[in-house]
Amino acid sequence: MRGPQFSVILPTYNGEATLVRAVESVRSQTDHDWELVAVDDGSTDSSFDLLEEAASNDERIRVFRTSNSGGPARPRNKAIAEARGRALCLLDQDDYWLPEKLELERPLLDQPEVGIVFSDAWIERAGSGRRLYSDVWGRSKRGHVTADLIASNFIPALTAVVPVEVARAIGPLDERLVGVDDYHWWLRITMAGYRVADVTSPLAVYCVSASNLSHDHDVYLSALDKCLRDLARSHPLWRKELLDRREELRRHGFDYFANRLARNGIDGLGAAQVAKKMATLIRTWPEAKRAIASALPPARRPTRREPD
Questions:
Q1: pTM to 2 decimals?
Q2: Which pLDDT tens digit goes with each residue over 131-177?
Q3: pLDDT tens column, 119-132
Q4: Quick check: 14 and 60 in contact, CB under 8 A?
Q5: Taking a C-beta distance cutoff of 8 angstroms, is the pair 196, 135 a contact?
């Protein structure tokens, strides 16, 4: 039997607050040639029940369940393995699509050597309104974009479409990389010589929660470093660009942890763990002095003496 054009890959974990909105955004698409493959990653709330109810009302929705893996890559891989469509679309439980998303991206899949089709997206933060993804991560590029993509991940995962034959050629997402498994996938696709194509208008909404951003960013920094290190080993042609990005990430990580330590003080909650993370990033004596100074209460920090 001929499968649908699109397989929507939806992992979920304790997403009952937003899951129905994500599913309904797929059901509201102007292009109806899709299936939704949802994998519940061991939720302890009503997420699985909500998915089963949706599947009972729409035969295009199929639902699976796995034990919790701690990240989206494993349920994504499970959904990809079960997918029947000719192109794979990623969507997370917190986010949602605008109705014309699939319709506007479909024609770009016919371009030669295309490995990823994507669009811009809105970033929506509670109490802060919306801003464009491209305003934060840089304007999108098209064609052969590996160097640009190493410098900045300008592909919002919730807008991406990957032809299934490309996904099979590249292999599954890396389940060790929490938060950057999609970025690692994009880079592997472009490093294999595939092109990217984009719709410049926003076709989805990426919703940011303020509940645990600090923890998420800690995990993100560690995973991104692993991502870049792995690719530098496996793709020597791009080694210099990848190592340059790792060095940029190291400097960002040092400043991030130093600011946290300065904000919370040496006796603040988790100060020892933050200081340990900073220590792994220190390579020079000036940076070490900055770390020591940032850990002191403001009144005890050394002040720079101005010349007479």
A1: 0.85
A2: 999 999 988 899 999 999 999 999 999 999 999 999 999 999 999 99
A3: 999 999 877 889 99
A4: no
A5: no
Structure tokens at 16: 């009952």
Helix (H) or strand (E) holding 90: strand 87-90
Q: Could you tell me the CA-to-CA distances from 183 to 1, 25, 80, 117, 308 in Å, in that order?
A: 33, 24, 17, 14, 52
Give the integer Cα–Cα distance in Å for 257 and 263.
Answer: 10
| DSSP string for 173-237 | --TT-TTTHHHHHHHHHHHTT-EEEEEEEEEEEEEEPSSSHHHHHHHHHHHHHHHHHHHHHH-GG
Angle made by CA atoms 221, 223, 225, in degrees to the nearest 5: 70
* E strand or H helix that includes residue 125: strand 114-125
Which pair of tokens denotes residue 99? 């109705």
Class (C level, CATH) for 6-208: alpha beta
3-state helix, strand, coil in the chain (%, to 5): 50, 20, 30
Quick one: how far is CA 158 from the chain centroid?
Answer: 8
* Least confident segment among 101-115, 176-190, 247-261, 266-280: 266-280
Amino acid present at 190: T
* Dihedral class, residue 244 (left if φ above 0, else alpha if ψ from -120 to 50, else beta): alpha
